User: Fold Multiple sugar transport system substrate-binding protein from Nonomuraea thailandensis.
Amino acid sequence: MNKNRLTAAVAVLAAATALTACSSGGGGGGATTASGSGASNCTNTIPKKDLPVVTMWGWYPNMQLVVDNFNKQNAEVQVCWTNVGQGSDEYDKFQTAISAGTGAPDVIMIEMDRIPTFQIQNALVDIKKYGFDAVKADYSEGAWKDVSVGDAVYGVPVDGGPMAMIYRKDIFEKYDITPPKTWAEYEEAAQKMKDAGGPAFGDFAANVSALTMALQIQKGAAPFAYDPAQQSSIGVKLNDQASKDVLDYWGRLVKKGLVGTQDQFTPEYISGVINGKYATYISAAWAPGYLTGAGVGKGEDTGTFAVAPLPQWDPANPVQVNWGGSAFSVTSQAKNPELAAKAAFGLYADKESLTHGWTNQIIFPLNLKALNDPEFVNLKVAFFGGQQANKEVYVPAANAYKGVTYSPFGQYYFDAMTKQVSALIEGSVTGAQAADRVQEDVAKYAKEQGFTVQ
Assistant:
């Protein structure tokens, strides 16, 4: 494989703006010193100054609390935390440190789908030999798969995004719609609502390629097959029948005028959600926190939202999928990987931090100590008018999720998908043609980076 070309390409990808599933936090910071000999530029105060110090970058809004809790409870190591930016801002700085061979923290918060991008550059450490067995049972098989590359584990899962269908109760009641259990029923309900003069049933946007990928996986697609044991080879399967079926499905709904096509996470889209322009929102378990932060459910639309399980293609064989999620990874620049792993395993793993995270809608926890906590499971979610959304929808979806295999060039794939979904929305290609073009584009790119495409 041409590693120089791949590294250069990764630098470009890391600079691309990417939606993160978590809200950004405040604060800032610069480069920190190596572990074991103290650290500078800590946002937090280190209480046990005689202990070795592990540096970390992270952007969770309650990171200060999380780090303080860890430091108070730990007698072996302390964490020096800084927030160098969210998502691509952090990735830019990390990529610079990788290229320079210095300047990276010992532990870094990273979105799960970005792990292979940095793993292929030998920038992350396999943490299996540093205490993995002691915490393995704290997370599901699907959560571990999302942070793994081949048989190696490159992160500790923290939050995830099991998917569901949020809907407007008032609109459903007005048009006598019951929550659809299948995608066929979803289309039928959308047609019924349109025929009655109702709003768009949902939204199919070009700027949420990770969502589109998840829906294709639900249908049976397996976009990538990658094992670092065969680092020069990658499976790229983006135009299989399942992928084509999903794009054709949404292309048909767009053509029939049943769903909108507004880019999501924009003021225009949020305004539409607030004003009842969309009857449903296909999204993840972090959506209530995001929507609340964006001003949804606080005015005239207060108490109008509910959530139902994600519609299925085959209700006899349901498949749960995920959108988003982050982890703590140990970087290859850590002077003491074992201590760094101890911090990664221990951060956001205590009850107070986890409870604060889900209570304030900062994270949807993947730690089973929180996920199975009766207080979390039975929570009456205010955004959903007191519905026990975790018990009814999100926890079962999280427990049934099996995980996916991400690629080392995920952002390029997402960009290629965005381009072709835009063409599908415009009507210049069919769903099947869009899938073929994504396949051609991404396979060509993979070959240019030195991969043999299977």
